[in-house]
């Protein structure tokens, strides 16, 4: 009986694909937070997804396979999370105060990737900034910087 139970457990473990990105990985927390920001307005545009892929590829120097795995892990984590605390606490342990402010700028850039900004996206980033300990002033400056970067050149 015990051998049968042990074989069952081993069979389950064998079926679990080995994940390149563990749930506690700050890269997964970053990608999950990005997905939550992108989904705040109810739609995830192709522009937002493309912007996130480019961002993750550049930031973490990933192969296409690794990039797809990270995107999938981030999407899954974002859908499983009940709030932003899970991600902000993981990231807060790995980022200094200046990097936290920079993270908000990245999130604002992601919001502006599709050319639209919604009230819900504003609220999500406000909450994230609060949880990361980023001041309202820095949050507004990062938003204004993202707006300026997203304006078409004349």
Q: What descriptive keywords fit this protein?
A:
154 residues; TerB-like; 0% strand; Co-chaperone DjlA N-terminal domain-containing protein; DjlA_N
Provide an overview of this structure:
It comes from Pseudorhizobium banfieldiae. Residues 28-143 form the Co-chaperone DjlA N-terminal domain. The chain is mainly α and 154 residues long. It is built from eight helices and no strands. It has helices at residues 2-15, 26-39, 46-60, 64-80, 85-94, 97-112, 119-132, 136-150. The radius of gyration is 18 Å and the shape is globular. The termini are far apart.
State the share of residues found in helices, binned by percent. Answer: over 70%
Work out the helix count.
Answer: 8
Contiguous runs where pLDDT drops below 50 for at least 5 residues: 12-17
CATH superfamily: TerB-like
Q: Helices and strands: which structural class?
A: mainly alpha
If you consult CATH, what is the topology? TerB-like
**Average pLDDT rating:** 85
Write down the CATH class: Mainly Alpha
* Rg over CA atoms: 18 Å
| Principal-axis shape | globular
Q: How widely separated are the two ends?
A: 75 Å
Count structural domains: 1
**Strand tally:** 0
Can you name the CATH architecture? Orthogonal Bundle
What order do the helices and strands follow?
Answer: HHHHHHHH
Q: Estimate what percentage of residues fall within beta strands.
A: under 5%
Q: Describe the biggest sheet?
A: none
Pfam families: TerB
Organism: Pseudorhizobium banfieldiae
Domain Co-chaperone DjlA N-terminal: 28-143
Protein name: Co-chaperone DjlA N-terminal domain-containing protein
